[in-house]
Design a protein that fits this description.
This is Retrovirus-related Pol polyprotein from transposon opus. GO terms for molecular function: aspartic-type endopeptidase activity; endonuclease activity; RNA-directed DNA polymerase activity. It comes from Araneus ventricosus (Orbweaver spider). This protein is an alpha+beta fold. It folds into two domains: 132 residues, Acid Proteases (Cathepsin D, subunit A, domain 1); 164 residues, Roll (HIV Type 1 Reverse Transcriptase, Chain A, domain 1), CATH 3.10.10.
Length: 364
């Protein structure tokens, strides 16, 4: 396309021509991971970072729905922590969403956290910390700009935009905004056990999960005289595994907390007339409760790759449900239309206006 600009003056009119054409190659930057030899799309327009789901993972039920730039839906099947190396003299440990996508994506969350800046003109990814750059390549990408929520003009989408932090994954710099801690009193000598052998695939999962929890500050190496064995538990409704401590021996020495867990039948009677419902499932809910400093050494787990103790409340610990129920009751007490059962929260209302206000009160 050509445009002409006529300039007035004493001299003869000067003709200035500016031309531009469509690019012959895609402007999508890809960076290769030196560990897996996989190229990742660098996409500042994506809210989250993704990796493709395999055939077995797609058999699981979708845990979340994302939206592409063309408003098509993208199913999410879980999470996986990866350690990446882009030849920038530091490794990048990050928890990716496992989604129904064809290419892995480094989203704005990853780039912002590690202070990385894409340079399309020079086809590289710049590290503002180390002042180094990783050379990549440009090629066509049929998927980009993945969003957590599609842009719609409804009161609920506006509400999510008003509180963007509630949908973000945990990070090491996330402060604890409450005073609740998990304290448990035990009697008897320290519990000791030998590490159990694990199948190679489960051992790999356990190492990855432990590395991620240490990255978040939820786990640390231990010198404790306690040692409960590691146990792998299948996640409900999926083909994935969750590493937990087998705390049965420790729990037998723990004095029980009698704080009541609510009966679902008690509050379902209060739902009569409600027409609008929202359910909130907290991500790694138990990990949001710190362990009391005096009890951290009791949570030690012996594994084939070392002894570790938890700084956050773990599944399987005695009184964990009571501690979390007490905490969530304190948070939601007095809020209209809000019902809590451990880490599941139900919001029920009769009108859209009331439902929006109930959600806003809870988020605030």
């Amino acid at each position: 396309m050509c445009s002409t600009v006529h300039m007035a003056g004493k001299r003869n009119q000067q003709r200035i021509a500016a031309t531009y054409s469509l690019p012959k190659e895609s402007r999508r930057l890809f960076i290769r991971d030196r560990i897996s030899n996989i190229s990742f799309l660098v996409d500042t327009g994506s809210d989250v970072s993704l990796i493709p789901a395999n055939t077995y993972q797609k058999r699981n039920s979708s845990q979340q729905t994302l939206f592409a730039a063309n408003s098509s839906t993208i199913n999410v099947y879980g999470q996986k922590t990866l350690s990446l190396n882009f030849n920038l003299r530091r490794d990048f440990l990050w928890t990716f969403l496992i989604a129904d996508v064809s290419i892995p994506i480094l989203g704005a969350d990853f780039l912002h956290y590690f202070e990385l800046v894409p340079d399309l003109r020079n086809k590289c990814l710049r590290d503002t910390k180390t002042k180094l750059q990783s050379v990549g390549h440009l090629k066509y990408a049929d998927l980009h700009s993945v969003q957590i929520s599609i842009s719609k003009d409804t009161i609920y989408h506006k509400l999510l935009k008003e509180f963007p932090s509630i949908a973000k994954l945990p990070n090491p710099n996330q402060p604890v905004k409450h005073t609740t801690v998990h304290h448990f009193v035990t009697k008897g000598p320290p519990v000791v056990a030998k590490p159990r052998r694990l199948a190679p695939d489960r051992l790999k999962i356990a190492k990855s999960e432990f590395q991620n929890m240490m990255h978040l500050g939820h786990l640390r190496p231990s010198k404790s005289n306690y040692a409960s064995p590691l146990h792998m538990v299948p996640k409900k409704g999926t083909l994935n595994w969750r590493p937990v401590g087998d705390y049965r021996a420790l729990n037998s020495q723990t004095i029980k907390d009698k704080y009541p867990i609510p009966c679902i039948a008690d509050f379902t009677a209060e739902l009569h007339g409600s027409k609008l419902f929202s359910r909130i499932d907290l991500i790694k809910a138990y990990h949001q409760i710190p362990i009391h400093p005096e009890d951290i050494h009791k949570t030690a787990i012996c594994t084939p790759f070392g002894l570790f103790e938890s700084t956050r409340m773990q599944f399987g610990l005695c009184n964990a449900s009571a501690t979390f129920q007490r905490f969530i009751d304190e948070v939601t007490r007095g809020l209209p239309g809000v019902y809590s059962f451990v880490d599941d929260i139900l919001i029920a209302s009769k009108k859209h206006e009331d439902h929006s206000q109930h959600l806003k009160t809870l988020f605030a």
